[in-house]
Amino acid sequence: MKKMKYKNKRKLCGFLYTVPWIIGFVMFFAVPILKTIHWSFNEVGVKESGGMELTRNGVQNYVSLFTEQVASGSRTFLQVFTNENTNLLVNAPIIVIFSLFLAILANVKFKGQGVVRTVFFLPIVLGVGVIKDLITISTGGDLVTRGTGLFSQGIATMMLLRYTSISSDIVLTITNYVDNIFSLISQAGVQTLIYLAGLQSISPSLYEVAKIEGATTYESFWKVTLPLIGNITMFVVVYTIVDIFLDSSIASEVYRFAFTKSRIGIASALSVVYMINVLLVLLIVLLISKKVVKKDV
Question: What is the CATH number that goes with domain 73-247?
Answer without folding.
Answer: 1.10.3720.10
